[in-house]
Amino acid sequence: MNNKLHLMILFLLTMFLITATSAMATSVIPTTITGKGVVQNPTCAALNYDYGLKVDPPTPGTYSLPYGLGTATFSVYSTVAGPLVDWSSTYGMDAVIVKGGNGANEYKYNPESFGLDTGLHAPANPNGKWAGVSHVNFCYDIELQVSKTATTT
């Protein structure tokens, strides 16, 4: 009877971990960027985005985007697998870069994301856990809204 109870508890714990891991998934698959120099420490401009907001050190909070475009908010929290980043923005983000360890993860949003994403992380260290977050870049462009109205006389 004890073995059955232990197996049931093990099964329930396994199911809980699978569900918890799924809940940490982001809405996009990141591109891992590694290398030396600028490649290892990418900026929004180096990755061909027009504008960027770099938060370094990665102090959680709400940050104003230049030109009064809106705000970007993020938080960093610890998990067994390593630190995760959640973010939201009032302006459309084309990408979010999470730098940590010897590389960075670029999360590209196409179309741009006006909402939020959760569970972003830096690349894994050799031990298999995600690296600590060094800084976060919010990458975006400014899209002009042009309209034309014609009236007949």
Low-confidence stretches: 5-25
Class computed from helices, strands and strand pairing: mainly beta
Distance between the termini: 90 Å
Task: Give the % helix.
Answer: 10-25%
Strand proportion, as a percent range, falls in: 35-45%
| Biggest sheet layout | 5 strands, antiparallel
Mean pLDDT: 82
Number of helices: 1
The count of β-strands is: 9
Order of helices and strands: HEEEEEEEEE
Question: What is the rounded Rg?
Answer: 20 Å
Q: What overall geometry do the principal axes of the alpha carbons give? A: elongated
* Spatial strand sequence of the major β-sheet: 1-7-6-9-2
Describe this structure in words.
By secondary structure, the chain is mainly beta. It is 14% helix and 37% strand. The protein is built from 1 helix and 9 strands. It has one helix spanning 2-23; strands at residues 31-34, 51-55, 61-64, 71-77, 84-89, 93-100, 103-113, 116-120, 135-140. The strands form 2 sheets. Strands 1-7-6-9-2 form a 5-stranded antiparallel sheet, with no helix packed on it. A 4-stranded antiparallel sheet has the order 3-4-5-8, with no helix packed on it. Strand 4 and strand 5 form a beta hairpin. The termini are far apart.
